[in-house]
## 1
Amino acid sequence: MRLIAAMSGGVDSAVAAALAVEAGHDVTGVHLALSPDRQTLRSGARGCCSVEDAHDARRVADSLGIPFYVWDLADRFREDVVEDFVAEYAAGRTPNPCLRCNEKIKFSAVLDRALALGFDAVVTGHHARLADGELRRSVDAAKDQSYVLGVLTARQLAGAVFPLGSMTKERVRELAAERGYAVATKPDSHDICFIPDGDTRGFLARRLGEQPGPVVDAATGATVGTHAGAYGFTIGQRRGLGVSAGDQRPRYVLGIEPVSRTVTIGTAEQAEVDEVVTHAPTWTGRAPQLPCRASVQLRAHGTPVGCTVAATEEGGLRIEFAERQRGVAPGQSAVLYAPDADRGDRVLGQGTVLRAGERSAALHN
């Protein structure tokens, strides 16, 4: 096949490109320039898209003897990922920018351009598997990225190649070292790539300004404090609330009301929900017949839980958990997997959480 290798400058994408070349494919390397200020330097494992990353990607491409280009998608990334991230927090929701980047950038903008240029697919260093066109978990559970790929459609998956899903991260680094790549020991990126200092609250404060409001304890109905911006909180958050309850029981964020700027907190029991309702789902293949049983994962490195999935009248999904869950926020992605009886590693699709449980529904109405 003629493949575009998305080369971030990290070890995963380097080995994925190398394996594609060694498999006999016609590969062209592409580094995505997503930051408007690419002359900045990385700080350890934080951030990405720096001038160092571009140089690291080019060195690997040179060693493979493949063409290498830089595609400037900074404007598209700013609009579809960064601005979406800010707008979601401003609306009291909790987005996942990595999932949005896969949906809007890597497997929309990049894949569409690759297909238009006559390429067959895009190869990436994601830790996930494709088997008979179905998206499945990586064999390395600790590095599995199927959650952030759960938003992809069957068409997008048909244009994707994931060579690393059948190996561990340790093996990936061994393969890079065997080929003499300097990135073999490069730290993995973590946190949000466009917030390299890791200070999400500070980033949002600079974008949205100070927006003070009350912190209300649902257990007593009393206002127990104030805050400088509701966007600095997420559902389920326990630390950094800046208030203390009279009974000394831990408090968690239960709800965020952006209009009144009210942050509602409560006990661990009040933070638990037994179902979510989502917006219209996207399916990675043929839509399952509903209602059905499945497993659901609510965050990138969360523990799957059994569930029952049914359609709502509005075209979304109602997902009932086998065990009550804590910290489920509007804006999160509820990624569905086949039930354990079907190995539990096949991704069915996902829905973006609209509301979680009766308690959270009441808080958001």
Note: The two ends are 52 Å apart (CA to CA).
## 2
Amino acid sequence: MQGNKPARAAILLFGKDVPPYAVYIGRFKTPTTIIDDRMIRGTLFEVVEESMRFILSHVKVAFEISGEAERLEIFEYPLPALRELLLNTIVHRDYTSPVDTQIKIFDNAISFFNPGKLFGDLTIEKLQRDDYQSRARNKLIAEAFYLTRDIEKYGSGFIRVRDEITNYPTMEFSYQESGDGFLVWLKYQQQKISSSNTREGITEGITEGVGLLLKEIRLTPGRRIPHLTQHLNRPQKTIERWIAELKRQGLIEYRGSKKTGGYYGVE
């Protein structure tokens, strides 16, 4: 509280009213061709989860056969790195700026932009070292996400991102101050499709969104297309296309009657 009013952090984290700040997130085929996009508003906790769901729905997944029945999912980007960059964008943006946070997903790159340059004496050069000291513009927001164990209080996010992408041979991690904000990129030249970092072994297709659908079916088996369409907030035709691909690869199956049955993961 500040006097008799809730602080900005309290409103952003727990407020019931729709805040003026938003996350604009889109899937781009080219810088000017948008395939899918969304404007996400809510409490910061809700924004993080909804944004992560949208990102996952557009992340490609390779399926590697490593044994007679074992399938290994290899995501286009390391998911912990994506979540870390998303949290960094939400927690450290300048909330006095009316500019929206922007996340853009391309065929082989993803960018995160948040208004507000680096805070305090933190510089690009310092961020490139593993001994940098974090500076929190929004201490109460950072504290809240620390208490939910989403972030480290004293900041080691960029170190963890660098660690995560070491298993992605052509992945590039870059960042810069851009205009009145901070811009981060993850890019790659060749998508990782094997756990051995080579093209050896058997893979089963690379598709967008199927990883998110497969996870949902495994978490809530027995669901039908209307539930999956509503829960994942995707068009029915998109869900049907993803289901057809997962069935083709033998990752899911339909059990029961047409009226009461549902989809289950195949172990």
Note: The longest helix spans residues 44-57.
## 3
Amino acid sequence: MARAFLIVLDSVGCGGAPDAGDFGDKGANTLAHIAQACAAGQAEVGRSGPLALPVLDGLGLGAAIRLASGAQTPGLQAVSSGRWGAATEVSRGKDTPSGHWELAGVPVPWEWTYFPKTTPAFPDALVEQVCALAGTQGILGNCHAAGIPIVQILGPEHLRSGWPICYTSADSVFQIAAHEKAFGLQRLYDLCAALAPILHDMRVGRVIARPFSGDAQQGFARTGNRRDYAIAPPAPTLCDWVQSAGGRVLAVGKVGDIFSGQGIDEVHKGKDDMDLYAHLLRLIDTAPPDSLTFCNFVEFDSLYGHPRDVAGYARALEQFDTVAGQALARLQPGDMLVFTADHGNDPTAPGTDHTRERVPVLVAGTGAGEIGHCAFVDVAASIAAHLGVPAQGPGRSFLP
């Protein structure tokens, strides 16, 4: 009657990646720097005092941070009652597809294509294809940018011209922001879907539809209708392994998009992470035997990591810690639950991009003990072992 729950806290890294300097991220440490800022009284907006994560720390969060990086973790000093470690990525990226695919047993075998930090950032031929598919005379943006500021800056011109706002980041990504009503939500989806094969052939990992609402007077705001058009994984992942063995795979959040629907039986989405937390808790009650429930909670990254909001990130972590306690209380005999992350996004780091970091691995339902240093792919191998599913990737189970 085994079941598995894999929960990815998007961007909740713990520092110490041995190749962080190659990515310009030497010293980055999302969790440690948040904890240190909280202890220093530098994260007092909407919360106060040292970072308080008793549930996650009880599973070994503080210990995992210290293992990964040797960093001080004020407020996170509990003795672990779970199985804990820190995972290192081998794929040459610090992005969502690389992290999730590797956690699911498949490292990325190629180099992603990244757009240069120039203006314009995109080749003329690509811009011409966007315009032809969008039916416009041009595009706005054509640069590296953070999503929330560029919409505020270019939103009025977008409404006047009807041109889509196209931008990228340090990730292998092509993002298109457009007004849900003035441009049209379905039109935005159709544009991204038509562009996706072109960009995937270029080894660009994702095309992301970024719809927004509002006006120049009241301001603009993203809606909950984001959609990712990701390149398909290059080999069968943990999701496929479970399906092939007769189990069901239930995706929460953007997991279905990240895997291009490959190996996914059900998709559960919501307007925000609170909706997704409710899905997780319900699925712990209802998921069938031999199933994998695979969750991504994105707002740590999108609302607090990229905007460099330390207090907001701390609030979100503390809020989730309560949800984590509710999740653990609902587990049934034979359940395995893993909390981990896909990359870092240190809100104290310069810029607005992801940061190359190790990630914590916290496991409930399989006893207590130190995993130590492991690989992302070991998460997939361990879940497969728990479910009695043949593992096809390079990982090694850390279960006893």
Note: The chain has a mean pLDDT of 96.
